[in-house]
Amino acid sequence: MTRWPDRRILDLFGIELPIIQAPMAGATTVDMVVATARAGGLGSLPSAQLTAEGLRKALSEIRAAVKAPINVNFFSHILPPDDPAAQTRWRALLAPYYLEAGLDPAATVAGAGRAPFDAAFCEVVEEYRPEVVSFHFGLPDKALVRHVKGTGAKILSSATTVAEAVWLEANGVDAVVAMGFEAGGHRGNFLTNDMTTQVGTMALVPQVVDAVSVPVIAAGGIADGRGVAASLMLGASAVQVGTAYLFCPEAKIPIVHTNALAQAKDDSTAITNVFTGRPARGVVNRLMREIGPLSEAVPAFPTAGGALAPIRTAAEAAERDDFTNLWAGQAANLASWIGAEALTRELCRTALEVIEHRRPV
Amino acid sequence: MTRWPDRRILDLFGIELPIIQAPMAGATTVDMVVATARAGGLGSLPSAQLTAEGLRKALSEIRAAVKAPINVNFFSHILPPDDPAAQTRWRALLAPYYLEAGLDPAATVAGAGRAPFDAAFCEVVEEYRPEVVSFHFGLPDKALVRHVKGTGAKILSSATTVAEAVWLEANGVDAVVAMGFEAGGHRGNFLTNDMTTQVGTMALVPQVVDAVSVPVIAAGGIADGRGVAASLMLGASAVQVGTAYLFCPEAKIPIVHTNALAQAKDDSTAITNVFTGRPARGVVNRLMREIGPLSEAVPAFPTAGGALAPIRTAAEAAERDDFTNLWAGQAANLASWIGAEALTRELCRTALEVIEHRRPV
Predict the structure, then answer these.
(1) ipTM score of complex
(2) B293 to chain A: which residues are within 8 Å by CB?
(3) Can you give the residue ranges of every domain in chain B?
(4) Which fold has domain B1-77+114-250+339-361?
(5) What is the distance between the alpha carbons of residues B348 and A230, in angstroms, rounded to a whole number?
(6) Terminal CA-to-CA distance of chain B, rounded, Å?
(7) Which residue in chain B has the smallest CA separation from A243?
């Protein structure tokens, strides 16, 4: 059995392997969480696109399938005030795409569909007591955090800068995810909105390690054993891997997303706000090219998504990825088409091999 | 004596340590190259701000001081055609700064001062026969490359994407520098100008390693032994370190630059084109904030610099860094104020320590 020299995250979460499957709202399934947990990693269930009832159902299924510790993830944004003028401008910008698809630009659209952590979600946490609760976009208000901690859960959140990591530690997290610029999906930034100064994983991880005393989890651009090994050298106690799990059969993503991942090269992605109103990394597609990748015309998170849904649905029906958020990190090209349990084990097995082979003697 | 498992760069260049001191035009001195070479790393002399005669003098001094192999670096851009309209627009944009400094916005300014590799430089290479010749911004024309190779020099250039690495290998380089997004100074990009898709070191290095058969040198965000150890795990055969050498007494930089480095945090830098017309990473200052960091109003590389010189000189005289290019990577905060010879050795000593301590058993 492997003796990992840094056991801080393993002991904190009660897991066997220093691999955290990233919570990916919409794409992560119960099966993915269960498979990761079976391998000995930390499976993470995202809740941002679930209702409290949906979360209850998913947790029941997971708890019935595995005894291992799990992580439940929540977005901790504050819903913005209604801004009809911003919505009108946004819909005017999208109108040509509606017309091109034969849709009525004035049709009513659904809501945005990204729910923040709240009292209803907190009740589910108190009921199911996941061993780890992680947040994205900082932390929810102190009273809710206290409730979560009261269940015995370890608390985790993401930092994109040293300042964010220091803030998270001061506000009670048990560990920090140092989320490098390479990472796919929504950036965790919450103290800065400046995308020109976001930090790459190689530079971010050791600086976060030096700045906080809680253990650090490296994220961003890690999709194989080399990235795992490198992260441990930088001082990370574990890694969080997202994009590589999108290649697993357990991922639930549209076929256009799978196709984009299959073709993604190192420089196929960019950070964009056009899909939700917050910056996130995805494969560059038509919407990003034509109105982004970053635009001030996009309404506040998460309200941008509603008006996109009809043209996205129409495009996907025609197998076009023009309006789909094709979340991916910069290391998609390193991933393999294997199951989530095998992936979790392989990341560790190959990391150990890499360290052994590349160790000077 | 340490046995490095990957000796490809060590054997190719004839050096003892897998550390390449990055050529930093303006900042790297003869003393820095000599100190790095004495430690067993590869010292790199930049030529972009030298004349052929200045290069001759520097090489004479280096050859007199050390027997170890050295690298001479050249920019391989093509000088743009005169564009008086672009210069007029640029000077109009800068005019308020001239007036603020009590300078005449219509005064004649000096040339841009970044010279590409040419026949005159090639003669110096043939005369002094540096063991390694590196280029930035792709490669010069094939005839010149042939001349350089004819001297027995190994050829090196930087890639910011896998596509650029593949191109460089196809065009005859002996090794590739995989230059991640974190790196300070001018980006090496030459097949793309799209800064939204540049790749972080953690993601770039293994993808370049997989794509080329020549050895790969990791660069970007590496300023201590952890970064060196991590880079070796990613498959790099050596690392190139820049910013950390700016903290050495052998660096020749303005006091405002030293002060900016001393205060630089992980998120203090951005990629900007406002100083030279090409994207480069530096500490964010007034000019970057007010007209950048990336602007289409900046004239073609390297012609932006001439008009900046008078306001830069005036500001520096008042100890203000408003118009100085404060080149730095994202890991400046990891650097120490030690000499270049000690730094070169320390990077390796601490890398070995890190690998030994963080190796699972």
Answers:
(1) 0.97
(2) 196
(3) 1-77+114-250+339-361, 80-112+256-334
(4) TIM Barrel (3.20.20)
(5) 16
(6) 23
(7) B203
